[in-house]
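INTERNAL AUDIT FORM
Audit reference: QA-55
Scope: verify that the stored structure record matches its stored sequence.
Auditor: D.O.
Record contents follow.
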Amino acid sequence: MTVALPKACVMGHPVAHSRSPMIHGYWLRTLGIPGAYELKDLTPEAFPDFVTHLAANGYVGGNVTVPHKEAAFRLVDQRDAASEAVGAVNTLWLEGGKLMGGNSDTHGFIANLDDRAPGWDVPGGRAVILGAGGAARSAAYALATRGLRVLVVNRTVERAHSLAADFGPRVGGHGFDALPQLLPGADVLVNCTSLGMVGKPPLEVDIVALKPSAVVYDVVYVPLETGLLAAARARGHRVVDGLGMLLQQAGFGFRKWFGKTPQITPELRAMVETDIRAKTAK
């Protein structure tokens, strides 16, 4: 009798660009785990049936990416606290015959900050988040859970107010016109917009008002150093890029599927960095 090897996958549409197979494949090899991690391109019509029959399709779990995170939220049997708060599921696993859903973006966001800027969470700290989309929701939840006062800034102020209302009095919403008044009190500045990403317009924010001790974090990781991070580094701020968030959130699912805790080694980070540079070179 042959025992099927544990398999996980990343589910999206499109999905060919995903670096998840590279990351998980590295961990499977270095940990000596007999298993596999695959790409599954699923249309919105095909996703529900595939995911509700995950075991029958031969998988122990997987990552969920655009455009399926909200559908996954609705389809799972049980959700963790982070996904309940954020309103999206990006990690699936099977537990006791149930389809479980989690949100590893919140874990990846905060674990990356802890790793790259230790001591960032000063008592009574304040964080300013730029943007009010899915990444901003994950960041707001993670930062508020760590006890920070969180100020969400968005060009459409109604979206900032709506996000803030979902997280209680520790989170506030503002328009971009309030940013000059908010920056001097910020201990952490986070870009959760797509501005500054390859192919997108630059993020135009003057960070001169930031105090020297403030940490500047950009969830964008293509390019590896955005204009915001370059400006912050030039001013002497500690900076945190988005690649670490990608790697940290990947470890959340790996533990669920394969039962081992993977390490984010310099070799792994260098491998992903090389791939990003090769695919973004002009």
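Auditor finding: record pair retrieved intact. Residues 219 and 242 are 4 Å apart (CA to CA).
Action required: none
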